[in-house]
Design a protein that fits this description.
Elements lengths: L14 H6 L6 E5 L11 H9 L2 E4 L2 H10 L6 E3 L5 H13 L3 E5 L12 H9 L3 E5 L4 H9 L6 E6 L4 H8 L8 E6 L4 H11 L5 E6 L7 E6 L3 H6 L9 E5 L7 H15 L4 H12 L3 H12 L2
Parallel strand pairs: 1-4, 1-5, 2-3, 2-4, 6-7
Antiparallel strand pairs: 7-10, 8-9, 8-10
Helix pairs in contact: 4-5, 7-8, 10-11, 10-12, 11-12
Bound molecules: S-adenosylmethionine.
S-adenosylmethionine binds next to helix 6, strand 7, strand 8 and strand 10.
Length: 301
C-alpha cells in the first residue's frame, strides 16, 4: 500500500501556469464550479476566484461556503434568475471602474440551464470583455460516459413541467438524429420517462447519469422500453439529480417520408385527424405524435 500523500495546491509548481495567462481588469469571468465533489473545481478557477474583486453568484450562501472551503474570503453579490437584469447593470458599472468580476452559478457551468446569459449579454452589449473558465458541466460529463456514438448532440435542458407542454416540446424532437440531452428534477423523473416513451421509439437507447461526481453516482444505459422499470426498481432513484440522454432518431429515408405522407393523406379523406394518425402510425411504424401534428397541418387546423 502506498503512503497517502497530501497536496498543497498553492505550492504546486503548475499553479504558475495559471498565472501565465493574462487576466485583464474590466473583464467578466464566467467560472464553472463543481457539480458534485468539491475538488472538481479547476486550479485556474481557484486562481481566478482569488484574483477577482467580487463574485456574482446565484446563491451567496452556497458560493460563500464553497469559497471558504478553499480559504477564500471574497465579497459576493447575488445574481439569480429574479434579478439578472438589474444586477447586470451593477456588474457593468463595476467592470467600467476596472474591476474583475467572477460569475458563478450554484453548480456547473453558468448560463447553461442556469442564470448568467443575460448578464453576459449585457456586458457584451456594453462593449466589455467576457472570458470563460471551462470546467464541470453535467451535460458534457453525462455524454462522455454514455458510449452513445454520435458526433452531434442537441442540448434540450429542462422540459416544461406541465404534461401537455412537455408532450408538445417533444414532438419536434422525435425525428432529430442528434443525441438528445435533457436535464430533469428528481420529482419529475417518472413523468419525464413516461413522456419520452410516448414520443420516441421504445427501442432507442436511453442513458441516466444520476448524481454525477457524488457518492451515489450511477450511469445506466438501457432501451427506452426498460427505462421506467429501472427508475422504479429503487426508490432512491426518484431522488438526486439526473441528466437523461436519448439516442437520436435513425435517419428517415425520403421514401419512408413520402410513404407516411401518402398513407396519411388517404386516411384523412375518410377519418378524423386522431384516427388517421393512429392508423398511419400502425401502418408505417412512424411516431403517432408526429403524424398527428402533420395531420393537423394538412387539415389546416
Ligand atoms: N449549469 C449546470 C451544468 O451545466 O452542469 C446545470 C444546472 S441545472 C439548474 C441543474 C440540473 O443539472 C439538474 O436538475 C440535473 O439535471 C443536472 N445536474 C446538475 N448536477 C448534476 C449531477 N451531479 N449529476 C447529474 N445531473 C446533474
Amino acid at each position: 500500500m502506498t503512503e497517502q500523500q497530501t497536496i498543497d495546491i498553492a505550492r504546486l509548481p503548475v499553479m504558475g501556469e495559471a498565472a501565465q495567462q493574462s487576466y485583464p481588469t474590466a473583464t467578466l469571468y464566467v467560472v464553472a464550479t463543481p457539480i458534485g465533489n468539491v475538488t472538481d473545481i479547476t486550479l485556474r478557477a481557484l486562481y481566478l476566484l482569488a484574483l477577482a474583486d467580487v463574485v456574482a453568484c446565484e446563491d451567496t450562501r452556497k458560493t460563500g461556503a464553497l469559497l471558504q472551503r478553499f480559504g477564500l474570503n471574497k465579497q459576493t453579490i447575488a445574481a439569480h434568475q429574479h434579478n439578472e437584469r438589474e444586477v447586470a447593470d451593477k456588474i457593468v458599472e463595476r467592470l467600467r471602474s476596472g474591476q474583475r468580476v467572477a460569475l458563478v452559478s450554484d453548480a456547473g457551468t453558468p448560463a447553461v440551464s442556469d442564470p448568467g446569459a443575460r448578464i453576459v449579454d449585457a456586458v457584451r452589449a456594453a462593449g466589455l470583455a467576457v472570458m470563460p473558465l471551462p470546467g464541470p458541466s453535467a451535460a458534457i460529463a453525462a455524454l462522455s460516459a454514455s458510449g452513445l456514438v454520435n458526433d452531434r448532440f442537441h442540448f434540450v435542458g429542462f422540459l416544461p413541467a406541465k404534461a401537455r407542454q412537455r408532450e408538445a416540446a417533444l414532438v419536434p424532437l422525435a425525428r432529430d438524429t442528434s443525441t438528445l440531452v435533457f436535464y430533469e428534477a428528481p420529482h419529475r423523473i417518472v413523468d419525464c420517462v413516461g413522456a419520452l416513451l410516448a414520443a420516441f421509439e421504445p427501442t432507442r437507447q436511453v442513458v441516466f447519469a444520476r448524481e454525477l461526481s457524488k457518492l451515489f453516482e450511477e450511469v445506466h444505459r438501457c432501451p427506452l422500453s426498460e427505462a421506467l422499470a429501472w427508475v422504479k426498481a429503487d426508490q432512491h432513484r426518484e431522488r438526486g439529480e439526473f441528466v437523461v440522454l436519448v439516442e437520436g432518431a435513425r435517419a428517415d429515408t425520403d421514401e419512408g417520408d413520402a410513404e407516411a405522407e401518402r398513407v396519411l393523406q388517404i386516411l384523412l379523406t375518410e377519418c378524423s385527424v386522431k384516427q388517421a394518425a393512429n392508423l398511419a402510425a400502425q401502418i408505417t411504424g412512424r411516431k403517432k405524435n408526429a403524424l398527428y401534428e402533420r395531420a393537423l397541418q394538412i387539415k389546416g387546423e
